Amino acid sequence: MESNYLTSYLDVAQVTLYAFWAFFFGLIFWLRKEDRREGYPLETDPGGRFRTNHYLLMPKPKIFRLRDGSTRQAPDDKRDTRPIAARRLGKWPGAPMTPTGDPLVDGVGPAAWAERADRPDMTWDGRPRIVPSHAEPHYSVAGGDPDPRGFPVIGADGRLAGTVSEIWVDRAEHLVRYLQIDTGPGVGALLMPMTLAKIGNGRVKVKSLLAAQFLKAPRTKNPDSVTLLEEDKASAYFTGGHLYATAGRTEAQL
Fold first, then answer.
1. DSSP run (H or E) holding 180
2. DSSP-H helix ranges across the chain
3. Is 6 inside any structural domain?
């Protein structure tokens, strides 16, 4: 048999192209199934019913083993059943919602938080990742930078909200994550994201919240550690103030 017996009547380049197309289609289809492990199946809006879980479009459940020894299945078909303190402004799909209470406390819109694990984030050696600076005495404020501890905290209304009593450091990233604010006698530490603070002239200015709104901010259960859920709640509360701190912030800006 001659060496070119097949290629004399078979277009190898065309067959290779078709094989590549088939492989690429299969790859895209597989990737689209895998990216449905989180956040699926979808719910209809505004009815809230599950959409049909077609076996060709949804991946089979897979067990993931986490570092701490626990396991997680995805997809798990779990739904967020928390009540939403807001009402729709219309009955059509995608209609906006308006809060019916205090959106910062109720966790509505930009002030919403995810139901993360109620345990601290850990470092590779099993220690809480984010801790107050007194738990890591070798951390210190760099020379020439202002140390915010003891500085008054001023809200968006120009009033005194409290005093910075501690800084919380990230052992993994080696930076300040939160400022602990003392607003008077209370339960747990009030943590404000460092990225929302403007430090200068011996004070800390925060434009996301009014001074009185600091009193309702989430607190931590443990004075020396913060859980993933508590982090999400604190970040949601302070960032949500950019929209909900005053009634005027929810209106259109010309």
1. strand 175-182
2. 12-34, 103-106, 228-244
3. no
Cβ contact 117:68 at 8 Å? no
Q: Give the residue ranges of DSSP H helices in 55-167.
A: 103-106
Q: How far is Cα 233 from Cα 254, in angstroms, rounded to an integer?
A: 31
Rounded Cα–Cα distance for residues 211 and 162 (Å): 8
Task: Calculate the alpha carbon distances from 143 to 15, 40, 147, 202 in Å.
Answer: 67, 49, 9, 16
Q: Read off the DSSP letter of residue 52.
A: P
pTM value is 0.82
Q: What angle do CA 146, 149, 155 make, to 5 degrees?
A: 90
* pLDDT 10s digits, 10-35: 778 888 999 999 999 999 999 999 98
Domain that holds residue 198: 109-246
Tell me which DSSP letter residue 191 carries. Answer: E
Is residue 15 one of the residues assigned to a domain?
no
Tens-digit pLDDT profile for residues 57-100: 888 889 999 887 889 898 887 888 888 899 988 888 888 889 99
Length in residues, the chain: 254
Q: For the chain, how many structural domains are there in total? A: 1
For the CA atoms of 138, 143, 146, 149, the dihedral, rounded to the nearest 10 degrees, stands at 20
